[in-house]
Amino acid sequence: MGDDSVSVFANRKSLGPTQFMNQSHGDEVVHITNLVEVDPNCDALITTNPKISIAVMVADCIPLLLISKEAVAAVHVGRAGVLNRIAVKALMAMRNLGAIDVHAILGPSICGKCYEVPFALQQTVIAEHPKAHATTHKGTPALDLPGALVAELVGQGITYEASTICTLESQLHFSHRRNSPTGRFAGVVSV
């Protein structure tokens, strides 16, 4: 089962000139100056061009938007993104482009009470990101990725606002764990 390609195209077109990315749970950051025909393989897009928007697609991962007067970034932050510090890499790339006061917006994502993981995986993540420690509603090991990301951003001196919506619990949001691979929502930003 997949998404209806006609609906996906219409939804994307309604956003105006917007660059999307092929997200890979990696640590690649790409600076976009103009729209490109083939979506770049990366987990963070940055632009300084006010004539285009950039987008991140998610269905449990965190859609992170980094905003400044000089540049913006759309960042895909899942478990791998937290481990490889994709948010900090995007922030550093923005600062290299002249961004000074950066503000972060964390969109809806799966919460620590719902993101159950094996104990060994939990321990691997919390060894690097203690604020990721969580326990599910039923008492099993879990990860609080928004908590880990907020701690990382605050450590970089970034102001933030974070959604408290859990994508698994909300019927208004797509969730990979609830709906398998179909459906995504977007975080979109422009300078």
Cα-based radius of gyration, to the nearest Å: 16 Å
The third-level CATH topology is: CNF1/YfiH-like putative cysteine hydrolases
Low-confidence runs of at least 5 consecutive residues: none
CATH architecture: 4-Layer Sandwich
- In the sheet with the most strands, the strands line up as 2-3-6-5-7-10
Highest CATH level, the class: Alpha Beta
List the domain count as a whole number: 1
Portion of residues in helices?
25-40%
Q: What is the CA-CA span between the terminal residues?
A: 36 Å
Q: How much is the average pLDDT? A: 92
What does this structure look like?
- The chain has 191 residues and is of the alpha/beta class.
- The model has no long low-confidence stretch (mean pLDDT 92).
- It is built from six helices and eleven strands.
- The N and C termini lie far apart (36 Å).
- It has a single domain, classed as CNF1/YfiH-like putative cysteine hydrolases, CATH 3.60.140.
- Helices cover 26% and strands 25% of the residues.
- β8 (133-135) and β9 (141-143) form a beta hairpin.
- Strands 2-3-6-5-7-10 form a six-stranded mixed sheet.
